[in-house]
Amino acid sequence: MTATRVRLKFQVGARTLAGVSRRLERLPLGLEAVLSGEIPALPPIGAADGYLVTSLPAAHLDALSGAWPLTAVRQRYTRHHVDLARGHEAWMAGLSGQARSGLRRKTKRLGGTVRRYRSAAEVGAFLDLAIPLAARTYQARHGLDAALSDDPAFRRGIVQAAGEDRVRAWAMFVGERPIAYLCCTGQGRTLRYDHVGHDPDFADRSPGTVLMAEALADLFSDRFAWFDFLEGDGQHKRQFATGGTECLDLLMLRPTIVNRVVLATLGGFEGGVALARRGLAASPLRGWMRTLRR
Q1: DSSP codes of every residue in 208-263
Q2: What pLDDT digit, counting tens, does each position of 154-205 carry?
Q3: What is the pLDDT of residue 223?
Q4: What is the C-alpha separation between 287 and 9, in angstroms, rounded?
Q5: Whose CA is closest to 177, among 241, 115, 232, 224?
Q6: Which residues pair with 209 in a beta bridge?
Q7: Residues 6-16: pLDDT tens digits?
């Protein structure tokens, strides 16, 4: 592995106020590693400032950090997934009655059609229509990795992966207008929830939720064993998942003076933000605080 520069951010919600760069060995755990129950082995650190382990099961925190002198949990979340071996009927039966009726209602109200893309040629056509749509989405406006990129190297990588049978993509249309997309790549026996977005003009019709349900219906008869919702939370993830693992991102730094100052400053800032958020939660300023976080 090769260490990379990682910017540790001072954030209020999605707004980054400042940051400090550290050279870290990154160890992102895939879903199969998360579900295995095994404690990950750390690669040689070389000249790096430390490690950043992402999606570490919370149950492994003490085992991994206990022998390391300077650590900090950067965020906690549930890594949601769908066990595709259950089959579509069993998955639908696992949804609440309210969720099933809500999904039927949203599907009928949207009145859209779904097109599916798998081969390299099909995925190339998908990117032609989805990349312009992606530029208008919430993900792109906020600089999130979930947005499709218009970078030529990114496009070549997706098309190449499709040629290796490692891409599944879907687009939702109203008439001939694309209004939502989902593009997923395979990692072993797992399909990842990589790139997603929808036209903000149709946000009130829940196109992403409807498209996600259509995609999962296809995947229960595909070759993959799991659908991985990746890091982060969301109502549709909780609604559609068949399981989840409590995970965290763990920062592990060499015990230098600079690194101690960095962690102390980050901890103090984040503690202050949390205190301010609690104090403003019931005050007339709570609307201003939500605006600042966005």
Answers
A1: HHHHHHHHHHHHTTSS-SEEE--SS--HHHHHH-SEEEEEEEEEEE---HHHHHHH
A2: 999 999 999 999 999 999 999 999 999 999 999 999 999 999 999 999 989 9
A3: 96
A4: 23
A5: 115
A6: none
A7: 888 877 766 77
Q: Where are the alpha helices (DSSP H) in the chain?
A: 31-36, 61-65, 88-94, 97-110, 120-134, 138-141, 152-163, 207-219, 235-240, 257-280, 286-293
**Which single residue is written with the structure tokens 């940051």?**
19
Contact 91, 99 (CB under 8 A): no
Tens of pLDDT, residues 203-225 = 899 999 999 999 999 999 999 99
The amino acid at residue 29 is L
- Give 196's DSSP letter: E
In the structure encoding, which two tokens stand for residue 251, read together?
């920062």
DSSP 206: -
Cβ-based neighbours of 257, under 8 Å, separated by 6 or more: none
Q: What share of the chain is helix, strand, coil (3-state, %, to 5)?
A: 45, 30, 25
Q: Are 24 and 3 in contact (CB under 8 A)?
A: yes
Full-model pTM? 0.86
CA 182 to chain centre: 13
* The amino acid at 269: F
Q: Are 228 and 31 in contact (CB under 8 A)?
A: yes
Q: Contact at 8 Å (CB) between 135 and 129?
A: no
Measured CA to CA, the distance from residue 294 to residue 289 in angstroms comes to: 9
The pLDDT score that the predictor gives to residue 136 is 80
Lowest mean pLDDT among 20-24, 95-99, 105-109, 284-288: 284-288
**Residue 87 zone, left/alpha/beta (φ > 0; ψ -120 to 50; rest):** left
- Alpha-carbon distance of 251 to 47, in angstroms, equals 16
